[in-house]
Structures are given as C-alpha cells and as structure tokens.
Amino acid sequence: MFQDGLLKGKRILVTGGGTGLGAAMGRRFLELGAELVICGRRSEVLEETAARFQTETGGVVMAVPCDVRDAAAVEAMMDRIWETGPLDALVNNAAGNFIAETHKLSPRAIDAILNTVLHGSAYCTVAAGRRWIEAGRRNCCVLSILTLSALKGSAFRVPSAMAKAGVLAMIRSLAVEWGPKGIRTVAIAPGPFPTAGASQRLTPGGGDSVVDREIPLQRNGEHIELANLAAFLLSDMAGYITGECIVIDGGKQFLSDAGSHTLELMNWTDEDWARMRAQAAGKR
Ligand code: HXC
Ligand code: NAP
User: Fold this and answer.
1) Ligand 1, atom 10: nearest CA belongs to which residue?
2) What is the pLDDT of residues 109-158, one digit of tens each?
3) Chain segment 22-48, per-residue pLDDT in tens
C-alpha cells in the first residue's frame, strides 16, 4: 500500500514540522514522493531538520519560520509558499500544551494554548483553503492532529482539550462546506507517542519512554505508525474520507480519561506542581 510515489506530485505544509510528530510525518511524506514545507517559530530548528531530511531522502524541503498565532504572519508564509507553487495539503500539527491546575491558569496561559492550537489551525486552514478555492484547485486536503481530549476532555489539560475540540468542529464543518469544492478535511487523534516536546511538558519526571499502565495494547505508539496513517489520509487512496477523525491510541479511548497520569495529578501537592512547572519551562 505504501509504495514509492504514493504522494508524488503533492506539496504538503506541516506546521510544527521541525520536531517530534510533525517531523516524523514530514519525513514519511518525503519518502513517499511528496514535496515538503515545514514551519515553526524557531528557524534554526527548521533549517536543521530541512537539511537533514534533504540529505537523508533526497527530497525537496522548504523551511519557513512562522508563529501560527499571528494571522498576518500566516498570510505572509502562505504568500511565500505560493510564490514557488501551490500547496496540495496542510497538516495542522503545531501545538502548545502543559499540565496545570485549571483554577490557577492566567489569561495569558489560556491564550498561549488557544491561540496556537485553535486560532493557529483556523488561520492556516482558511489561508490555504481560500487560495485553493479562488484558484479552483481540487483534490486538496487539510489534516489536523488532535488528541483524544478533543473527544473526551482532559483534566489538568483543559485549554488544550478545548482548543482541539474546536479544531474538530472546524474539520467536521468544513467537510460539508468545502467538500463540493474538492477539499477534504480530516483529523487524527493520537494517544501517547512520546516526543521530547510532550514529555518535557506533560510527563511527571520528563521520561520519554514511560508507558501508561492504562493502554490496552501495553505500549506507546511508534512515530512511523502515526506517519503512515497521516500519509494514507493525505493520499488519493483516502479520496472518499472526509470529516472524519481517526483515533490511533492502542485502545485508550475506551478508558475513562483521555489524559495520562490523571489520578496521580489529583493527589499532587503545591510542591509537586511547582516541580512540574519548572520541568516544563526547562527547555523549549
Ligand atoms: C501554567 C504556564 C505554564 C505552565 C507557561 N505558562 N507554562 N502556566 N503552567 N506549565 C503561562 C506563563 O506563565 C504565561 O502566563 C503564559 O503561559 C505564556 O507563557 P510563555 O512562556 O510566555 O509562552 P510562550 O513562550 O509563547 O510558550 C508557549 C507554551 C510553551 C505553550 C507555554 O510550552 C511552548 O512553546 N510549547 C510548544 C510546544 C509544546 O507545548 N509541545 C507539546 C505538545 S504535546 P503569564 O500570565 O505568567 O504571563 C501535546 C500532547 C497532547 O499537545 C496529548 C495530551 C494527552
Ligand atoms: P512538539 O515536538 O513539541 O511539537 C510542537 C511543534 O509545534 C514544535 O515543532 C513547535 O516548534 C511548533 N509550534 C509550537 N507553537 C507554535 C507556534 N505558535 N507557531 C508555529 N509553530 C509552533 O510536540 P509533539 O508531541 O510532536 O506534538 C505534535 C502534535 O501532536 C501536536 O498537535 C500535539 O498536540 C499532538 N499530539 C501529540 C501526542 C504525543 O504523545 N506526542 C499525543 C497526542 C497529540 P517551535 O517551538 O519552533 O515553534
């Protein structure tokens, strides 16, 4: 199914594509013949990833620094991309998250997550969609990377759960509005796929390989498993799938809470929370 050239002729933007799952998906898209564009706030991270992927795959990678919270910056990024050719697909992957007691969140903390995940995904989706619709370009796709909390909520990760649920509503709504225009909108809700970014902010102690005891398949996800699902959804083989959110989580959605370590967090002291906050702020 994943033959060479599956994504040939497709130009794909992955937001937050310099690290973690965004990078894993981008690399897989390149292996399958796509042209890749990655964005994020840190240009040095993007440049390093783009250079490495070009060397490793021989593919074409463009790196564009952009803060997706800034609508004007998103428009400028899309203009820059379109100068060298249109996109065929957008992956809304950039995100911010941390664990915190919700009643102690400041407005800026809430905004930091909502602006990145909800507004950033909306800005990117509308900016790409408008260009596709105005040009009459068909066979395009928006894929948003959500979390299980979009479906179930998640204690101690409330702004992220709210934002991801909002993105799911966008994906489902646009499947109807943009379907007749030849644009599919789909989503993936991953369970635990350890990355440095997520472990630093969401795993007490920061360990990368902690396996949640509540995962029925008793292991974390492999990045390639998520990347293959994303490649399938963007490919023409998934041409009749739209408005759908695919869960890939080892069976965890059938358990009571979308988050990890929740029972442990409910018993944390102020000192535990302070330690976690310091860990999350450690490196960006
Ligand atoms: C409470 C916090 C906080 C924390 C920051 N803030 N960290 N509040 N707990 N741990 C508050 C700050 O005090 C500030 O409010 C406001 O948030 C903005 O903080 P800044 O550091 O100025 O923001 P910024 O530099 O823009 O960084 C954004 C960020 C950061 C979200 C806080 O973590 C980041 O850049 N994250 C990007 C990568 C990421 O999060 N990756 C994980 C994705 S994994 P005040 O009022 O003090 O000014 C994922 C997995 C989902 O999403 C699966 C879940 C199960
Ligand atoms: P990550 O490595 O921290 O990825 C987040 C990426 O988003 C980074 O490359 C970051 O780059 C970028 N980013 C953050 N804020 C941005 C902004 N304002 N503008 C542009 N780019 C921004 O974490 P990850 O684990 O790979 O997460 C990737 C996606 O998977 C997220 O949507 C996350 O919610 C989802 N997810 C992950 C897991 C998991 O277990 N890892 C589970 C469920 C869902 P800069 O810092 O350079 O901007």
Assistant:
1) 277
2) 999 999 999 999 999 999 999 999 999 999 999 999 999 999 999 999 99
3) 999 999 999 999 999 999 999 999 999
- Inter-residue long-range contacts of 108-115, CB under 8 Å, 24+ positions, other chains counted: 109/159, 110/159, 112/159, 113/159, 113/160, 113/163, 114/159, 114/162, 114/163, 115/69
CATH code for position 175: 3.40.50.720
Q: How far is CA 194 from the centre of its chain?
A: 14
Query: Which ligand 1 atom sits nearest the alpha carbon of residue 190?
Result: 53
CA distance 227 to 132: 25
Q: Is residue 73 part of a domain?
A: yes
Pick the atom of ligand 2 nearest to 116's CA.
18
Q: What is the pLDDT of residues 56-107, one digit of tens each?
A: 999 999 999 999 999 999 999 999 999 999 999 999 999 999 999 999 999 9
Residue 6 lies in a domain: no
Among 15, 75, 93, 201, residue to substitute to test ligand 2 (most atoms within 8 Å of Cβ): 93
Q: Which structural domain range is residue 187 located in?
A: 11-283
Ligand 1 centre and the CA of 237: distance in Å? 37
Rounded to a whole number of angstroms, the CA Rg of the chain reads 18
Task: Please give the tally of structural domains in the chain.
Answer: 1
Question: Does the C-beta of 201 come closer than 6 Å to ligand 1?
Answer: yes
Rounded Cα distance, 81 and 204, in Å: 39
Cα 81 to averaged position of ligand 1 atoms, centre (Å): 28
Residue 168 inside a domain? The answer is yes
At residue 226, the pLDDT reads: 98
Is residue 4 one of the residues assigned to a domain? no
